[in-house]
TrEMBL record:
Pfam families: Cupin_5. It comes from the Eukaryota. Residues 1-35 are annotated as: Disordered. PANTHER family: DUF985 DOMAIN-CONTAINING PROTEIN, RMLC-LIKE JELLY ROLL FOLD PROTEIN. Residues 1-18 have a biased composition (Polar residues). Residues 46-242 form the DUF985 domain. This is RmlC-like cupin domain-containing protein. The lineage of its organism: Eukaryota, Fungi, Dikarya, Ascomycota, Pezizomycotina.
Amino acid sequence: MASFSSAPGSGSYNTTDNLLFPPPPPSVITAPQTLPDASLEPTSIQSIITSLSLTAFVEGGYMAETDRNPLKILSPFPLYPATTFSCSDANQGSSSTDTFDPSSYYRPGFDPKLRNASTTIYYLLTGANGGAGGGGGRQGGSPKGYLHRNRGRIIHTLHRGRGRYVILHADEKPCRVESFVVGKNVEKGERVQWIVEGGKYKGTFVFPLEDDEDGDKGDGDDEMIFISETTVPGWEVFDHDFLDRKGLEMLMEGDEDKIRQLQWLIKEEQ
């Protein structure tokens, strides 16, 4: 019987079949949802963060925009924000729709009728509890990227590390759940490049080295997922939304088994 831990504070449950994907260990599932603190990361991770000027990101992990194509094109998207959250800061969410202000999703100079042709970022997820070599009881690490959706098409390229992506095809009925491993072992079917079309939710988690699904330990400092993402048309917070519990229930058509397997990838409203 396979055991699967559910969301933080909700215990665990057992299921005999119908696993959507092999679950990660509790250290990943119960990792705090607060913005990560780079000072708690292992020295090797801190070096990457500092060298590339990465900052903590609301999706989980760290990011830095490296390119915004100056070419402007007409937006193919609706003229209203994708998200239902209200923000005073474009990178921070709030659950109150009563104070919803669409202009809070406009970065300086943003025109909802236009988009940059493309944007590119670095994105880094790190191992739970400080990652490889963290130790000392530190509670660093940001091992999961919460289920979220973008309107644009995103091309992902792996630089280092290993983990699993979970894709919810919200534009299909019934909603298809897809998962795959990203890593350098292409002979085993791991992906070093993958594309997520707009309108689909994606979530991610890092493989802890000691609990790697295939027993591969890597190089000892690869408890991470370090990638580049290119979004076409260019990324805007205006075109981004997180999946909430109600949305998950609707997509899974009330299937409690599937909901329990996915709910720990839901970002809780702060």
